[in-house]
Design goal:
single chain; mainly beta; Elongation Factor Tu (Ef-tu), domain 3; 7-stranded antiparallel beta sheet; 1 helix; 7 strands; elongated
Length: 116
């Protein structure tokens, strides 16, 4: 499955996993009688955990987008997710291949999602 830049230019086809989950801000309290009370603040966002592989050139493009806080689009399992990379991606070189390949993971803060 592919990753595209904000202009729909292909970065990589190497997405091996993408798993979405809610990003909820909660305040948790315990009442005097021992019961728990959870208050949700605002509307929950969506985070997407992604595992992908990159050639050296694709890695450089990906890192340039991260530095500029640019948006990317991840397509996986018939859905697309557009957002900004959260934090520092974890990338490492894949050993025993004929040319430089990098694998890693990152989290996408999703601004838009839908069906392909």
């Amino acid at each position: 499955m592919p990753i595209y830049d904000e202009n729909d230019v292909l970065i990589t086809q190497g997405v091996s996993m993408a798993l979405s989950h809610p990003d909820v801000i909660e305040i948790k309290n315990r009442t005097l009688d021992g019961k728990y009370h959870v208050q949700t603040i605002g509307t929950a966002g969506t985070l997407l955990d992604v595992e992908a592989s990159f050639t050296h050139a694709q890695k450089l493009i990906f890192e340039t987008i991260k530095r500029a806080s640019g948006e990317i689009k991840v397509v996986f399992d018939g859905r697309y997710y557009i957002g900004v990379i959260d934090g520092q991606p974890s990338l490492s070189r894949i050993p025993n291949v004929d040319f430089p390949m990098f694998g890693g993971s990152f989290t996408l803060m999703v601004n838009e999602e839908g069906v392909v």
